[in-house]
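Lecture notes, unit on protein representations.

Consider one protein chain, 185 amino acids long.
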Amino acid sequence: MEPTVEQSTTEPATVAATATPTPEPTATETATETTTTPTAEPTPTATETVTPTAAETTPMAEPTEEPTEEPSEDTPTAAPEDRSPSIEDFTVATDESGESTTVTWAVADPDGDLETVRLEVVVEPGGSAEVVTDRTIEVGGSDAESETALAIEGIEPGEAYEVRLRVEDEAGNAALAVTRETASG
């Protein structure tokens, strides 16, 4: 006997899907009030465009053969900056008696317009600042120097005083130096 072979064929299984129907939306009419706001209409603006004609254009200047006029001596020029004078030396030496002091000073001005040097002896410099002696010396040019004796009468021994030097030029620029001393005696 011969063996028997059975063949089986399997057909693919079919799966049946069951769908649940979705209800379809239905339109419901609802009354709503609609408000319209009027919009302002733009106002037209007229713009005029002018195009010059050939007769209205300005002609360009023609070059000339004449040279340009040279500036005259009356033509203003920029003045150099006014600079302040300076104090180059300022030394005070009081004599042994305590009755006078000698001020050695030197001043300079880069513009060369020195005018005055003023020397002052001031008592109570932290209080009433009373000037007890002063001297004004006329100077000129770009530098000046001197030794000037000043009386310091009326100042008590141990009392503080100041010697002030102020130099001024013709333009009103100034420099000031101050030294504080104590009267001996």
